[in-house]
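[Meeting: bench + compute handoff]

Bench side (C.D.) handed over the final construct sequence. Compute side (W.E.) agreed to return the predicted structure before the next meeting so the bench team could plan truncations. Sequence as handed over:
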Amino acid sequence: MLPYESTYVDGSMMAVSLLKVKEEYRKAELKRAQDYHEPEDHIAMELGFMSNLCSNNSRDSLRMQRDFLKDHLSKWAPAFCDELCEKSSNDFFRGSGKLQRDS
């Protein structure tokens, strides 16, 4: 249960999905913090990106939210959250998966 889009969509890490996510961030002029060492398709970074987009109600931001949800998060996050709920031995992670899945 790896928290990366590319593992769910492409079947391996650092694959095509990662490149597509990086392109979305580049379009939004978002750069990864130097002290953040996870690939950009990590669930935390994707959700943080959506949070950033949601804080801006411009027409461009709303379009980017819709497209990122359709093209990225909706393709893999539900399956990841299901796995968290089913396979994690940690109550925090199981609860986080349930919250994300049910929202």
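W.E. noted at the follow-up: The chain has a mean pLDDT of 92. C.D. will use this when planning the next construct.
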